[in-house]
Amino acid sequence: MESYKLTVNGQTREVTADPGTPLLWVLREELQMTGTKYGCGIAACGACTVHLGGIATRSCVVPVSLVGTRPIVTIEAMANDPVGRVVQDTWVAQDVVQCGYCQSGQIMSAVALLKSTPKPTDTNIEESMGGNLCRCGTYVRIREAIKAASQKLK
Amino acid sequence: MKKLYSLPAAICVLLAVCGAWSAGAARREATAQPKPAPTSRMDGLAAWQQVYSVLTHPRCINCHTATNYPQQGDDRHRHFANVIRGQMGTGVPALRCITCHQSANADSTGVPGARGWHLAPLSMKWQDTSDKILSSSEVCTALTDRARNHGLDGPGLLKHHTEEPLVLWAFHPGRSIDGTMRTVPPLTHEEFVEATRKWVAAGMPCPQNK
Fold first, then answer.
1. Which chain B residues are closer than 8 Å to A112 by Cβ?
2. N or C: which terminal CB in chain A sees fewer CB atoms within 10 Å?
3. pLDDT attached to residue B19
4. Chain A residue closest to B115 (CA)?
């Protein structure tokens, strides 16, 4: 076991974990931040997406030992993020969610997309969100919500 | 009156001078770099075939695709999770290569990693759009074309093969998600660098046959 100082949503958090422990489990089990979801465990579905050093990252495959000093931002911080707030509000307004399990990952990816590409085309959205799976099939509403959020962020 | 040296004394002086000269020559010989034997075109082509055997190994060629996505595995199947190339070969905004691939192998989760994970540019594709590996001649031509290889000359290519983190990764690719070690190219990194060195020394000859 090793000790790690992580910067999570702007706060320094000290955790003790095996170096190979995925960041997802450190967030959920050690820090009790359960907004980030476990889906497939192999980076195939995107439910565990967080921002690591500003990059949308699959927390289920990143060992805590490789996080380093990069800041971690999770779904819990999106309400206070200028882009995250707009995306969440739009998600509600567009009634995107069905069961909701994948949606924290969807929102984290959507925010990363809009921060990098404020006016995404349909192709941009399909390519960037292509790694986030939704078994309820809310893809069309997700695409419309991203476009609507983009308009609001003008 | 002019003083004359005796014959034995003259011989001694001569021997001493010769001894000093030959000792100096031996020292000079010992410190001089051995002159490398000239590498023939034949040797260069043989070395190239060794280089080619590494470049076309899945650890290398999986990211030298002609398509909009990388490959993975020894069977070189399409990368899962809808990963695509993106304009810079680093993925797209919410799905970058570094979304999963960190600065080192993540053996606990089976995700390979090295600093700057990315796809090679399309100008450095070593397979066609049907995933068929290009011939030795075609790969060699691409690799030596400075308009396609980021302007690398022979020493530049040798440096790339010696130091580039993603090249180094291919020889230490870590553990797969099933716990087995990934396969490695047919040469060690040292042998690969040596083969590249010989090929460069021979003037980077390329096979003629397509």
1. 93-94
2. C
3. 43
4. A66
* CB < 8 Å to A127, chain B: 84, 86, 92, 95
**Looking at domain A2-76, which CATH architecture does it have?**
Roll (3.10)
Say whether B93 and A21 touch across the interface (CB within 8 A).
no
Banded model confidence at residue B21, pLDDT cuts 50, 70, 90: very low
The domain A77-152 having CATH identifier 1.10.150.120: the answer here is: yes
- Going by pLDDT thresholds of 50, 70 and 90, the confidence category of residue B209 is confident
What pTM, to 2 d.p., does this model score? 0.87
Residue B7's pLDDT is 42
Q: Which residues of A touch B98 (CB under 8 A)?
A: 55, 57
What is the arithmetic mean of pLDDT over A83-93?
Answer: 98
CB contact under 8 A, B81 and A22: no
**Which long-range contacts link B91-94 to residues 24+ away (Cβ below 8 Å)?**
B92/A124, B92/A127, B92/A128, B93/A56, B93/A112, B93/A113, B93/A115, B93/A116, B93/A117, B93/A124, B93/A128, B94/A49, B94/A56, B94/A109, B94/A110, B94/A112, B94/A113, B94/A116, B94/A128, B94/A129, B94/A131, B94/A132
Examine the pLDDT at A31 and tell me if it is beyond 60: yes
Cβ contact, residue pair B95, A128, below 8 Å: yes
This model of the complex carries an ipTM of: 0.96
Q: Is B110 left (phi over 0), alpha (psi -120 to 50) or beta?
A: left
| Rounded Cα gap, residues A42 and A48, in angstroms | 10
* 8 A C-beta contact, residue A57 and residue A48: no
CA max distance for chain A: 47
Q: Do B108 and A20 touch (CB under 8 A)?
A: yes
Q: Does B80 lie at the interface with A, CB-CB under 8 angstroms? A: yes
- Residue B35: band (very low, low, confident or very high) from pLDDT cuts 50, 70, 90: low
- Listed by start position, the domains of chain A span 2-76, 77-152
